[in-house]
């Protein structure tokens, strides 16, 4: 969390680390420094997984493991750090939706139980662009391009 | 958040081949043995390629990254001075060297193919061999002997959601230093992250522990990364002194790994 103070007299003491020897592929999810929204997304996903039920006449809202893995993969590929908190919601049949809104713009990821994902840009609730998300470097570029477009609405 | 105190580690130096703490299934994802030295003034981008010739049979794969540590990020006057770090990786992908103008780091890392942890007694001789090759290279190229200012040992552990923990309430079952519980009217912490730092006995150096949640890219699993780093100031730049410093750092790291975690986790990881 970014501290919001009227008198910013506080300065964080940075840990002394001459060499960061790590080469590991971790995406830090620290709320305090890099991506405050990331942990919120993970937390919502966990809640959805825990609460998922097969509700008669409504639908099967249990989240498929493939879908939740895909959502975490998407989260780990995001390099735009100045995002608001997303909203995650179940999609009947085992899928998960994830949506960011800034002003009149929205970016939505719809992940189905199979893991297949559609990403969409919307402005004033009208579709601007969409694409199928695949795990490759182009997908990562598309993903960050969509989210970059979103934050530019500010 | 930073805490400074004194960590108690065994006063006498253990034999390098002796296992201070031993687990059947430790959660280690990566280890790094590093040496930081004064920047080698004559080192240029060309030397990465020349050095590769010395180790190419051991490390046939290379990757180029931005240098780590206290790097001045400005456009250098000469492109050959650009602050880069080169990774020299073996065929398995598990063992690698990282070299930059002011540092030499030797890593072991877990890969999807090879998850078996490589013990310090196996990695230490590899470090010794590679450091000897590097030192000879510097000498042969008339680049001067490195003036070592710091040795560093880092162990990075991955605690996987669904394996070591299910939710953040469980963090107190993993770490002795985290008591958990409710705070006033607040229930069920949604995230736990902390950093602590300690002075090592006899002014030997410092130990830093960083606990941070994240997503592991290789398999998209949610993890808590538990990184322990010991930084030791060596008394000189000889290979013997570097190895002594790494032994001290290793001892502090593995002892603190045991001391920071609970007996329940020790059983889970199969303490011997």
Biggest sheet features of chain A = 5 strands, antiparallel
Q: What is the molecular shape of chain B? A: globular
Strand content of chain B: 25-35%
Structural class based on helices, strands and sheet pairing of chain A: alpha+beta
| Biggest interface between chains | A-B, 30 and 45 residues
Structural class of chain B: alpha+beta
Poorly predicted runs of 5 or more residues of chain A: 15-32
How many discrete domains of chain A?
Answer: 1
Which oligomerization state do the chains in this entry correspond to? heterodimer
Rg of chain A to the nearest angstrom?
17 Å
**Can you count the beta strands of chain A?**
8
- Poorly predicted sequence stretches spanning 5 or more consecutive residues of chain B: 1-14
Task: Output mean pLDDT of chain A.
Answer: 79
Q: Helical region count of chain A?
A: 3
| End-to-end Cα distance of chain A | 20 Å
Structural features, described:
The complex is a heterodimer of chains A (154) and B (272). Chain A is of the alpha+beta class and 154 residues long. Chain A has one domain. Chain A is built from three helices and eight strands; from the N terminus they run E-H-E-E-H-E-E-E-E-E-H. Chain A has helices at 36-51, 65-77, 137-151; strands at 26-28, 54-55, 59-60, 87-91, 95-102, 105-111, 117-123, 126-133. In chain A, the strands form two sheets. In chain A, strands 4-5-6-7-8 form a five-stranded antiparallel sheet. In chain A, strand 4 (87-91) and strand 5 (95-102) form a beta hairpin. In chain B, 24% of the residues lie in helices and 30% in strands. Chain B is built from five helices and ten strands. The A-B interface holds A 13, 15-32, 38-39, 42-43, 46, 69-70, 72-73, 75-76 and B 2, 29-30, 32, 34, 36, 68-70, 87, 96, 98, 103, 105, 107, 109, 150, 152, 154, 156, 167, 190-191, 193, 195, 197, 206, 208, 210, 212-223, 225, 227, 229, 231.
What's the quick description here?
Chain A is an alpha+beta fold and 154 residues long. Helices cover 29% and strands 27% of the residues of chain A.
